[in-house]
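yo

u said u wanted the structure for the complex thing, so here. seqs first:
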Amino acid sequence: MELPLLIRAREDGEQFVLTPFNGNDARPADACLIPGRLPTPGEQYRFHLDMTQCIGCKCCVVACNEQNGNPAEIQWRRVGEIEGGIYPDTLRHYLSMGCNHCLEPTCMTGCPVNAYTKDPLTGIVLHSAERCIGCQYCTWNCSYGVPQYNPERGVVGKCDMCYGRLTDGREPACVAACPEEAIRIEIVDIAAWRQDYVSQANAPGLPSADDSISTTRITLRDALPEDLGRVDVARVEPQHPHWTLVFMTVFTQLSVGAIASIALLQAGAHLTTPHFVVAGIVVTAFLALAASTLHLGRPIYAFRALSGWRRSWLSREVLFFSLFSAAAVLYALLLWTGSALSEAPGIAASCLGFAGVYASARLYKVAARPAWNSRHTILEFGLSAALSGTLAAALFLPAARSLLAQAAACSAMALAIQQLAKVIALRSSREFERRAAGDLLLHRFRWAVLLRHASLWALALTLTARHLPTPVLGGCLIFAIAIELLNRWLFFVSVVPKSMAAPYLSERRAA
Amino acid sequence: MNLRRFLGIDIARERYAFAQDPAVGYISAQKTADRWVKTTCGYCSVGCGMLLGVRDGKVVTSQGDPDHPVNQGKLCPKGLAEHYVLEAENRARHPMLREGAGFRPVSWSDALRRMATEFRRVADKHGPGAIGVISTGQLVTEEFYTLGKLVQLGLGTSNYDGNTTLCMSTAVSGYKRSFGSDGPPGAYEDLTSADVILLIGANIAENHPILCQHLERNRAKTLIVADPRVTKTAMMADLYLPVRPRSDLALVNAIAHVLIRDGLIDRDYIDRHTSGFEDLRRFVARYTPEFACGITGLSPELIERVAHLYGKAQAGFVGWTMGVNHSSKGTDTVTAINNLALLTGNVGRVGGSPFSITGQCNAMGTRESGFTSSLPGYRKFENAADREELAEIWKIPAERIPARRGLAYPDIVDAVLKKEIRALWIIATNPLVSFPNIDVLKQALGELQFLVVQDCFHPTPTTELADLVLPAATWGEKEGTYTNSERRVSKVNVGSPPPGEALSDFEIFLRIAQEIGCCDELFPGWQSPRDAFEEWKSVSKGRLCDYSGMSWEMIEESGGVQWPFPEETGSSPTSARRLYTDGEFETADGKALFCCAEWEPFPEQPSPEFPFVLNTGRTVEHWHTRTKTGVVPILEKMAPRAWLEMNPVDAKTLALRPHDRVDVISRRGTVHGIELRVTEVIAPGQVFVPFHFAEWNINDVTQDMFDPISREPNYKQCAVRVEKSPAGLPQ
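structre next:
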């Protein structure tokens, strides 16, 4: 077989040389577990899981970790459980999944630094640890929870179908380890798969293959109990709070809202703000953005996040906020010097800032996190900017105090109504992950939801008072920031990500 | 965290680098080896061939041996991660002597002198029978052989048994009763060639997953699984028999009834090779399918269908494991299973075998060469000729060889409690987790004058109670042979040296022999386990378990050799061998015996106070009392804690919800805070808890009721109640 060799050097110095399979290979038994040839144009490799064969022994999980040298906390291949039926006609199946090497990999489209590539020859979705900055955005984007962050390295890692073994003509470690020959590598015709993946890539316990067009083919039994489904639904756990992002989003929104209020009043009513105020807001924005780099596994490479602006909302967020900061600095400088030209940069900063807030909200709108994937996220972020921004501006613009306070009161009421609508929408959704997020808000975090709700109304009521002395207004601002920090924390902890079915027992040791 | 890592300059490149290994190809650079050691897995008795990758004297990887006939390159998750056991933090490194509430390290000579002194003191005052020894199924055969001689002839006590009594002694007793000797007659190959496979109380998909590939190769089979719980194996079955707990004997007798009634028996085979058929025929007459239906809960039609499938099979295979063995009617059930094989002539035939799937890696080795329930080489204590034969080989007076078996494991515990045994030596087992109704055992051990625990780990729940801890090497650190379920003798080799001052069990036994002054007599000139192997070969010669044609080198080269393999054999070491192919059995008249075994309900029936039947068992990630697998991070991650399975109907009645913490209470004790799993895998009225977890030790609850013949505990059924754990309990 004459096929071109693919030689591809990666920036981390690893070189993959994909050699054609040798016809007289000394491992005839393996021949059927991996294809005997390379994909041709229009084809790619994929996994096939025969669920009727899998006995849930988890050999593949251990073999994967041994192959890739991963610690026990990180499992690039995982085995989940689904169960259904009534005793004695009970059925339990196991889902052994690595990466699905999707046709439209959401990890890749979201990545702000182009750390992901879809190998042109094999279709394998590859991840470069060298390029990765550890933003973990891919871990939010993948419906299957495939990319996993490794805190020891500060970067993400994932299944690469054992590319290095495949190039040697060996089966991936999971395939080689399976005593039941339940996992295989096949060649898939990409165009045909786009047409008919729905019936073959979906299975009970798996998120919809629509999100990214998973290429893994799954063989199910012919007759399955109707209630066959995931066994981990009764143990929804709160997610990581991402404190740096809580602060970053709340304070960037405050800065944008404040700059916009000030710039608008300057343009519309020719009100001038004391120059130190704008400088202070700029410093706040810088601190918030600086804090967000601490979210990264590799903060020193934060600047790389700009490189994916063509497709990644995360890149766009970074881009817009960077431009916003630059414009705001200029605005502050011009105000400081008393220049008459300060109006234009103020308006520009406001526009760029709101573009940043929009991008910021937009990046959370991912299919893999249904509770975030709604207009509420954009509304919430925008209203938050309006509330805290107008309050901050009101503090230093006595002439417009009452107008700004009214605006803030409206924002607070809008946020309270929005919160109520969001919880109701989540709770009444037909989608498990939304409903589960609603349940977290209604039960586990009920105290926080009620506290914020009551606080928003109290704040609105206070702000409608006829006379607002500066200390009271200052108190209101601090109170509003606290409310929004609480809400943003709720935003992060209460999301229930899509994922493949997990085992019944959580891995974490009981606390 | 250093600054370079904090900033993201350092991403642990070296630790996560890959490299090309000449043998296994592209792999994590941590796992490349500079040499490979062939060995056999040290977990269960499937006996998988392994390759240990060793780098700089350390075992860095364990891989399946692609050339081994048992596993053909595959390993279960325990085997794939077995090398982590060697580097566990809690490996026993130095002999430790009790000092107050703690221990202090002592030298080997001090430790062994102390042990000999204490044992001598007990023997002088109470007689040598006041010394008890409880061993294991984990040592190599060479060590079992050495230990047997050391205990019975050196220490002079017969009160010696292995933890195999908690596991396989029922199969041993059943085989002895039916066929005149221990020894599973079949081969794994039978799983591939049988057309009907009946598994009773055997969850091989969970417990012996590597056997499944032999099953899978057999596309034409009908797989029938009898188990009260819908196990992974039950879900693989073509026909699943959801029997009520411990009704297996009634099912098996009813199958025999239908086979005889419908003429599905091999009359010629029965006439020529068995005795007791008429008794059996009369006996099973009352086990009509209708009668058995009332006991098993299976419809008469289903029972008839199973009997017809088995009776009409070209080759019918019956396999069983702990569902049958862990029972106070176990021996009877095994003989009843053997009856089915004898009725249909499915013994010693390709594909046809009554096959006990063994537990521990070398339970078979101690059955053959140990000196516990029989004399080495399946000789009988009661047989004077057997004793004389051994005395001649050993060059000792025949009177020194005991004429009857000493106490079995539970009876040793009982004797300790009655202060008849005053000193105890426990080797490579952890009874504080594995013995039923542990309270009694704990009380017993507290009565001892001196307790020696020899183990590769310290502390374990058992070593913590010891007066003296002897640190031993473990699998991967010593040389010898294991015998698997199909009587395949496989080689075990050294990958890395034991940690600290730990010694191989063989070396410890020789040093103890020297200390008590019997080394020159019992083990003249012995240097290595090979000397034990050579003597064992001569002891096994002419016996059913004949090793005399084997050598260590041949065993290693062939991927194990099935016994019998006598010197003058015509067959190749690699060919599959079966027992009783000529219909000649090990009984006095050469005929197998039909035994009549009456079904009885299990001893502790549920009551209003204790309404549930508790079943115990395993999960694929863990091994026995978790001393080994509990130190392997990936296995702990995948199976972090115990759980209790309960049917949704019962959970609803008790107002329990998934993941609630529950207490399990029996007449003997309570286990607190087990995580509830509400599942249709278990029938209403029954609950299941895995037995691996010392932290949720279900053997605090199980019943100390034993089979009258094999002395195996009735682990699988006892009456319990389940309650929601009080809030605020440490979970």
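Chain B touches chain A through 66 residues (CB under 8 Å). The CA atoms of residues 565 and 571 of chain B lie 8 Å apart.
cya
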